[in-house]
Every structure is written in C-alpha cells, then in structure tokens.
Predict the structure.
Amino acid sequence: MRKALLALDRKLKSPVHLIVGGGGAMLLAHRFALSTSDIDAVPAQGVTVLELDPLVKEVAAELELSPDWLNPYYSTFAHVLPSDYGTRLVEIAQHSQLRVSALSKEDLLVMKCFAARQKDVVHARVLFKGIGDLSIVKRQLLLLDQKRIPGAERAKKFLDEIEAFFRSREEE
Amino acid sequence: MTSGLKVIPCLPELELAYDKLLTKKVSPREVAQYSQWCRFDPRLGEIWITFLLQQWKTIPPISLNTEILALPWPAAVGVLLEFAKKKGDSVFCAWCEIVLSGVTPVSGEQFFIGLRQLGGVLMLEDAQFGSEEYRRWGYLAREPLLAKEPQVVFSKETRREILKSLLAQSNRIRTRDYWEATGRSQSLRQAERDLKESDLIRCYGKTKSRYYLALKR
C-alpha cells in the first residue's frame, strides 16, 4: 500500500491531501493487522475524484494492482462524521506532493456503528478498546439520532452491544 | 470495504456519455453503465432520465434488467426511474417494474460520490433532508433530477425536520419561509397545512398577516 501511494505521489503535479478510512486506516494508521487489498481514500484537497482515478489506474497497471486499489466509496457514509473530525486526523505519510491522513479511532468507530454489520464487530471492538474517551462517539451518535439520520438508532444499539461486551468481561 | 465501479469515469468519458444519450446512439449495456456514472454527475442523471423517457419503448426491459443486476449499484437505477416515473404513464411504470425486478434498496448511503466535502454540513443535510425519490432506494440526496423542474418529494417526517431546522434559525416564521425552505417542493396550500398541523408552532394572525411562533419546549 505504501509503495502504491509513493507511486501515486510521483504522478501528481500539485499538492493533494487524501483522507483514508475503512480498512486502510485501520492498517496504516492504527496498526491493526488485517487483510485488506485496497485503500478507501477521498481527496480532501487538490484534485477531484474524477481527476484522481486515471492516475490510480496508471499506478495499478505499473504495480499490477487491482484497478480500484484506491477508491472513494467510503465517502458515501461520511455524512455521519463529526464536523471536527479534521482535528483528529492521524498522519500516515507526507511525500513531495501527496499528504495522506487517516480518520481517528473515534471517527472510524462512528462509521463502523453506522455500518453495523456483524463483520464490523471485530474491528469495532478493537477501536473501542483503543479509545480512551468514548464521549466523542456517543455525542455524535446522539446528535445524528436527534437529526433523524437514517441508521442512527441502529448505530446506537450497535455501540451499546460493543460496550456491553467489554462491561461483561470486566465483571468476570 | 465499500465496493463500486472498478473504473471511475473521467470527464471526456462523461462528455461522450452525454453525446451518446442526446443523439440516442446507445446500447442497453451503455444505458446501464451510464446509470452508475450518474452518481458522479447529476447532470448525466438528468440527461439519462430524459433519454429514457423518450426511448424506453426501444429498450428491452429484461435485457436492461440483466445488465443492471450485474453492476455494483443497481439501486441507483431505482432512483433514476423514480424521477422518470413522475413524467411517464402507467405502461412506462409497468416497464420500470420489469427493469427493477430483483433490485433491492441499499442502506443509508449518499447517492452522489465526490461532490460534497467529506463530513461537511451539506453532506449531513443531504442525509437529514433527503428526498423520497432517493430514500425509497436507501440513498441520501436532495438533488432534483428532472431537467428544468425543481420538484423533489419530502416525506412528512423530513418536512418536520426542515421546519425544526428553520425554527432553529428564527422562532418566527411565515408560510412562505417554510415553503422556500422545502425548495417549493409542495404547494403553498400543503405548506400551510403542514404548519397548521405542526406541534412545533402556534399560529397568530389571519390570512396575509398570519405568522407562526415556535413553541417553547
């Protein structure tokens, strides 16, 4: 993944800032070893999704990667992010043109709660354990529930179950 | 991982898609493919819907259904056809049912990709005030896709959220303020009915001097 990002940097003619979410963030920023072959990343500055993709394809061809080794699709759920998520970004890399940051554990957990899939439970538990103060996550889920954002109620229940899991372990 | 198109269309490809749809020289496979590209370009969505309303009788619905079921976002076609159905007749609607056979809604994701700031206010408002044409298929957006017509449909629940948001900015409103806040998506009469029935406000005055004050909670 890092090699691919470096190759992408070489193709850029001006500064670009990518924000990574999903499995890529878990691996590159939060050191959670999992098998993911792609990076969920969105350009926050410098280039649009449409402009970036041809360069991503060039890198894919050069390094024999899947053409969607870098894709923006996690952004379709980014409406759940707290407005101040930018203050908690974790820096992954700074190349000559390309800056790469990842969502924090708190913000990733908010997104995981909204995904609320059973296959997200393992990652959610890892994130939960690594977060010192859950108030950011709880506050955001409450806010989204108050705004009647679809999935907010289910997200709160998902977090409640994660919390209950760790509470029951402490009691044992 | 959230899956999607392996290759995102670039600007020249989008322009070619416009041209093919406008000149009506396009195969069912391309019609299906362009439905996915609409998520990157609302203007393509408008053109796609206009094309379909003019040419649907020449497109075998089962062929189109087969093509879209093989694509990553078949529910996107559901959204586009929701808009198209507003202009089509009952036969067209029956054609749409065949095209959408086996297509299921997604689960609360933004319809458009790469057009809003990540986690920004507008992205959140798209989720909060999403119109029914998108919500029926599990998507979140507000953009009207019928060319030159501003109409989207908001559910009663969403209209209540819009009213709450308006009252957060000013606790005194008129019917027209609320009507404008809904993007004029309904008649003034319906807007008046909404306000009359709302538990968030109290009405004062009559006819032209009527206004509403937010109730303290």
Observations:
- Residues 152-171 of chain A form the longest helix (20 residues).
